[in-house]
Every structure is written in structure tokens, then in C-alpha cells.
Design brief:
This protein has 374 residues and is of the alpha/beta class. It has twelve helices and 15 strands. The chain folds into two domains: 3-118 and 353-373, Enolase-like, N-terminal domain (Enolase-like, domain 1, 2-Layer Sandwich), CATH 3.30.390.10; 123-349, Enolase-like C-terminal domain (TIM Barrel), CATH 3.20.20.120.
Length: 374
């Protein structure tokens, strides 16, 4: 298969609810959509999860555009591809880092590849589940009462796990208040690297809340301090930001830096890498779950497909479209019913990109083809 054309679109969607974390507040979702066309006339879709500011990791929408336009697209337009694993290989061979940019393009190739072979993306990846279990990530609210009300709504909708964003000054009191109302719900906390080892004694106090895990308490590149912290607390640590590569996962497991890993397709550079990390964790008895980056429909569909692999044993952050957007860019939108999403069986990502809606939220777009590259 040869990729003959790539279209990049700069998209902007309004979040129904501003998303507040220890690193900042998101009101809108700016992102890049990647559309590829192959010589066989097949279209594939990918979505970059890089955010507008480098607050979660170092990548941004602009750095992703730059990487795609100046490096990744020229490489891909020159390549003959038998399998998407080769895309991952060629993009990783010379270009360092910039995993979210790589993942956006590689994801589009996976979609096209599975459509060409008349397979669902889930099947093409080796997925085994017919439906996936999902939870919600709840941003920081004004009060504990507000948070309890959000949990109440999400519980009624059937979501299976409740993740609360925490930060210094917004943690013990919150968890205490929530546990008073809901002593038994599957609850966890995500700090997005807001603490340091100086906070060991403070973080040990989380143990009394019977959390499923605490996600990324310490620095975004660290695995050493997390190992020390894990030795001092009972709550299982789950790493998010710190795991960029297969080697990171291997080292974190070896050091005992975590007991659970959150796999984000974008953060690790694509589906091929995500699957490798999944397999490594499976072989080492480390459960994984699929993280979210407030994806629009295309990214969400990729998350659903990877979550169908067997070692995604804990509910992920891939909630239904209705929690994020007035209208999503795919048809149908993603529906979570009683905390389950049915894994599509139709070819590729299994959702239609809605071109009218995509047009409506496109700020600008640019096309690249083999002719325009030399
Ligand atoms: O740390 O998991 C995170 C969103 C943006 C950046 C980082 C994170 C998140 C989420 C939201 O927690 C998950 C989602 O609902 O997509
Ligand atoms: Mg996280």
C-alpha cells in the first residue's frame, strides 16, 4: 500500500464542561485530524492528542503540525507499506520523540490497513473483547459537594470507575468527603505529577481511602522516586506521564515503580507501540487500562479498538462522546451503556467520519501529496 495524500486539519471543539487538573484548565479542545488516502482509494483517519499548551507533556498542537508537515508526512509519502508496524518502525528510526505526532499518522495508517483487509481495527490489533468496560475522569470542581453530584450522575449512567483529579490542597478532604457518601465505589486519584518525594507522609494518608490506585503522583519523567514512594505506601501506583516507551515500561516494572500502567496510544507513539507495552505488561502480570486525552471521535475510536486487547483489565477513561461534546465528529457517536462500549465490528475504526461536522469545526487545513514532496 502506498499513501498518496495526507490532509491535516486544525480542529477546535468546545468542551461541554471545562476540564480542570493540577496543571490547568481546558475550555476547548484544539487538535489535529489526520486523513490519509491510499493508492487503492482507501481513506484512513488519525487524531493527535497533543494539547494546545505543553502542560501534560512537552508536545503541543503546533509542534505536532511541524513534525507532521516537515518530517513525518514526507517519510510516509515515500514509503511502500505492507503493514502498519513498518510505519512505526520507519517513523521511530530517525525521528526522536514527538510520539503524539507519530501516533496520529500511524493511527490513520492502521485504520486504512484494516479497512483494506476488511477487518475491524480491534481485530487487526488482535483484540478479543466484544465490549469494553469504561470509567470517567472527573476534573477538579469548586467543592466536594459538586464532585459528589457529578459522581452521582455518572453512577446513574452506569460508569464503572471514578477517577478524581487531585493536587496539593485538594486531596484528602475531597477523598474523605466522597468516601463518606460512597464508601465502596471503585475510586482512584490522578495527580498529574503534582507531588514530590517530600510529600511521602502526606501521600501515605491516601491509603485509608481504599483507592484502586493513585495515578502519576510524582514528576512526569520519573521512575526512581515512584519506586521509593511505592515502597512506602499501600495504594498501588499507576504510571501515566512517565511511560513513553517499551523500555520505560520495562524499567518501571523492574524497579517496582508501579503496579499498574495507563497506556495512552498518543503518549507512546501509536498503536504498534501500545500493543508492545500491553504484551510486556501482560507477560509481567501488570494490568493496564486505556487513558484518555479528551479525544474527539476519531481518537476515541482508536482507544476503543486497543482496549479490546485482553490485558486491558481495568476500566479506562474512554467515556461516551456525550460527556464531552455537543456533537462529535463521528457517526454514530460513542455510546457507553451501563459503563460498557460495544467494540465495532465493521472495517477500520468502525465509525464514519462526519465530513460536514468536521468542516464546521476546522479552523484551517492543508493537503500534502507525493507530487508536492521531493
Ligand atoms: O492525566 O489522564 C490524564 C486529560 C488530559 C490530559 C491528561 C489526562 C486527562 C484525563 C482525561 O484524565 C481523560 C478523558 O476523559 O479523556
Ligand atoms: Mg493521568
Amino acid at each position: 500500500m502506498k499513501i498518496t495524500q495526507v490532509v491535516l486539519r486544525y480542529m477546535k471543539l468546545k468542551l461541554l464542561t471545562p476540564f480542570v487538573t493540577s496543571f490547568g484548565t481546558e475550555y476547548d479542545k484544539d487538535f489535529i485530524l489526520v486523513e490519509i488516502r491510499t493508492d487503492k482509494g482507501i481513506t484512513g483517519w488519525g487524531e493527535s492528542v497533543a494539547m494546545v499548551d505543553p502542560l501534560y507533556n512537552e508536545e503541543t498542537v503546533k509542534t505536532n503540525w511541524h513534525l507532521l508537515e516537515d518530517y513525518l508526512i514526507p517519510i510516509i509519502l515515500k514509503s511502500e507499506i505492507q503493514h502498519p508496524d513498518e510505519v512505526s518502525e520507519v517513523l521511530f528510526k530517525h525521528i526522536k520523540g514527538n510520539y503524539m505526532a507519530k501516533a496520529a499518522l500511524e493511527g490513520a495508517v492502521w485504520d486504512a490497513y484494516s479497512k483494506m483487509n476488511n477487518l475491524s481495527l480491534a481485530k487487526a490489533l488482535g483484540g478479543t473483547k466484544e465490549k469494553i468496560e469504561v470509567g470517567v475522569s472527573i476534573g477538579i470542581r469548586e467543592t466536594v459537594e459538586d464532585t459528589v453530584k457529578v459522581i452521582e450522575d455518572r453512577l446513574r449512567e452506569g460508569y464503572k470507575r471514578f477517577k478524581l483529579k487531585v493536587k496539593p490542597g485538594w486531596d484528602l478532604e475531597l477523598l474523605e468527603g466522597v468516601r463518606e457518601v460512597y464508601p465502596d465505589i471503585p475510586l482512584m486519584a490522578d495527580a498529574n505529577s503534582a507531588y514530590t518525594l517530600q510529600d511521602i507522609e502526606h501521600l501515605a494518608k491516601f491509603d485509608r481511602f481504599n483507592l484502586m490506585m493513585i495515578e502519576q503522583p510524582l514528576a512526569h519523567h520519573d521512575i526512581m522516586d515512584h519506586a521509593e514512594l511505592q515502597r512506602s505506601i499501600k495504594t498501588p501506583i499507576c504510571l501515566d506521564e512517565s511511560i513513553h516507551t517499551y523500555e520505560d515500561a520495562k524499567n518501571a516494572i523492574k524497579l517496582g515503580s508501579c503496579q499498574i500502567i495507563n497506556i495512552k496510544v498518543g503518549r507512546v507513539g501509536g498503536l504498534t507501540q501500545a500493543r508492545k507495552i500491553h504484551d510486556l505488561c501482560q507477560a509481567n502480570g501488570i494490568p493496564v487500562w486505556c487513558g484518555g486525552m479528551l479525544e474527539a471521535g476519531i481518537g476515541r475510536a482508536h482507544n476503543i479498538a486497543i482496549t479490546s486487547l485482553p490485558n486491558f483489565r481495568l476500566p479506562g477513561d474512554t467515556a461516551g462522546s456525550a460527556l464531552y461534546w455537543a456533537e462529535d465528529i463521528i457517526r454514530p457517536e460513542v455510546i457507553a451503556e451501563n459503563g460498557y462500549i460495544t467494540v465495532p465490528v465493521s472495517p477500520g475504526i468502525g465509525y464514519e467520519a462526519d465530513l460536514d461536522i468536521i468542516e464546521k469545526y476546522t479552523l484551517h487545513k492543508k493537503e500534502y501529496s507525493s507530487q508536492s514532496i521531493n
